[in-house]
Amino acid sequence: MKAGKVLYRVPYADTDQMGVVYYGNYLRYFEMARNELMRECGWAYKDFERDGFMLPVVHAEVDYRKSARYDDLVEISAFYRSNKGVRLEISCEVRCNGELLAAGFTRHVFVDASTFKPVAPPPRFIDILKGL
To answer: What is the CATH number of the domain that holds 48?
Structure first.
């Protein structure tokens, strides 16, 4: 199974007053790995947009298990989870030294970049997903 993976050193700016990564930043981390997953599949998000498609997030879930802290080196991974109709789901994990810190997923809808109306996923993308 292909995965988008990012190694990321937590900067001070990502932490809150308690010295841990602010919870909202995990969704940004998910996005970083999701972009790497698309790149790994051979169709970078910028190419996807150039071809007239967008994938806005319509739902997100995160299960926080343990906090990341300033200067931790975290590994953020994204994996294809499922697709049905115009929807796509990507699972994500954040780990530090192999320990799971957070896990969740994002749900997206394929839309036409010019109208923002839902559209069927491009056949090329479905072929890529079948290969995962």
So the answer is: 3.10.129.10
